[in-house]
Structures are given as C-alpha cells and as structure tokens.
Amino acid sequence: MMNKNTLLETLSMLPHKHCIAFAASCCERLIPNYHAFVLMEHWGDSHSMQAALDIVWAFLEGGNLEEVHVRQLIQSCKSAAPHSDDFGSVFVGPAINAYAALAHTLEYCLDKDTKHLASIIDLAIDTIDEYLNTVNFPKIGLFADDDSAFDEWIEQAPLMIAELEKQRQDLEALETLPELAPSFLANLRQSSSVVGIHPIKRGLVVVPDTEIQ
Q1: DSSP label at 44?
Q2: Which helix (H) or strand (E) holds 74?
Q3: Which of these, 143, 212, 195, 205, lies nearest to 29 by C-alpha position?
Q4: How far apart are CA 42 and CA 175, in angstroms?
Q5: How far apart are CA 39 and CA 137, in angstroms?
C-alpha cells in the first residue's frame, strides 16, 4: 500500500486534471454516505451535492468551469452540510466528510493547491475509520481490553483495505495516461461504485417507496 506522502508526491507530478480525477473518484465513494444521511434524517440537499460532483466529472470530459460558478457550488454544498451536534445518525460524520471532500475538490479546481488533495485522502480514510469505530464498539468482545488490537483490526478491515487499494490503483492508472479519455473517466467513476461503505446499495439504509423511481 502507498502511504499518504507517496500518494501526494506522485499526484504533485501529474497534470491538474489527472489530480482532479483522483479527487472526484474519492468523492464518488463518499457521496453515497451523504445520500444515506439525508434519507435517515430527512434533512439536507442530495441534489446540490450530486449536481456539484456531476459538474466536476463534466469538466474533466471537456466542460467549462468558471470560478464564479465554482464558488456558487461550494456555497450551495456548504448550506447542505450538516452539523454533528444536530443529528444522531451514524452517517452524520461521513456526510460531513463527503461535503468537505467535495468542497476541497472544487477548491483544487481553482487554485491547484495540493493541500486540498491531502485533505481529500484523509477524509476518505477517516470516513472508513470512523464508520468501523462506530459499528464495532471496541469496549466489548474481542477488543475489550486492547485498543491497539482494535486499531490494527481497522487497518486490516476489508473496507479499509479496499479504500487504500482503490487509491493506489487509481493513481497508477492515472500515471500511465497522457490524456483522460471519456471511456477512462467513465470506468474510473463506475469502479468507485463498488468501493466504499455505500449504505443504500448494501441495504444499510432502506430507501422508502416514495424515493424509488
């Protein structure tokens, strides 16, 4: 597995749009957690979040992205971001992380500052870590008397391994490409649909009949 410093060093040598593609792939894995939060808490704006991410992907395929529009997207997403003190859902933290990663992606589109990429990497990993900590309470059972064993278990958990491996695979693929073809971008986006928590797709959050189209 690549560590964060190696990831960032490699990303810093890639073209701007390649780095945006990496960030968008991370967001694609995080945004389903926001959608799950909205379903559970009946609060938020899934449309604004999804629309902002869709616009990033469209930009990668050759669309325009004006600064004033990006600022509007960031503001609309910020308005839809929950506060952890206001909700008790297991997905409130992951929902906040999804917003933050998307905001960092949009900011990176404008300023090309790799600090945003560092934050996105952290948010993707922290989301898995937080979720596993929440649903596997370490004070009972196997890890009751050994916090370090629980931390080691999280590092080796399938969800965490899948996230780290996806980041590595995406980076290695991006390194080989002088240009981002639409077919590659479509595959990059689709491949993120099978990685991550994906609470709705995995049946952790039930979609009401009124939400099914």
Answers
A1: S
A2: helix 67-79
A3: 195
A4: 41
A5: 24
> How many of the other CB atoms lie within 10 Å of CB of 103?
21
130 contacts: CB under 8 Å, gap ≥ 6: 93, 94, 97
**CA separation, residue 54 to residues 47, 58, 65 (Å):** 10, 6, 12
CA pair distance 138, 86, nearest whole angstrom:
25
Q: Which long-range contacts (CB under 8 A, 24 or more apart) does 64-70 make?
A: 65/109, 67/110, 70/106, 70/109, 70/110
Instruction: For 135-185, write each residue's pLDDT tens digit.
Output: 876 555 555 556 678 888 889 999 999 999 999 999 999 999 999 999 999
The topology (CATH level 3) of 4-211 is YP_001051499.1 fold like (1.20.1590)
Query: Rounded CA gap, 165 and 207, in Å?
Result: 29
Per-residue pLDDT of 185-196, as tens digits, reads 999 999 998 899
89 DSSP 8-state letter: -
Could you tell me which of 56, 58, 49, 44 has the C-alpha nearest to residue 31? 49
- The residue assigned the tokens 């073809």 is 181
What DSSP line would sit under 16-66, residue for residue?
HHHHHHHHHHHHHHHHHHHHHHHHHHS-S-HHHHHHHHHHHHHHHTT----
Rounded CA gap, 90 and 79, in Å? Answer: 20
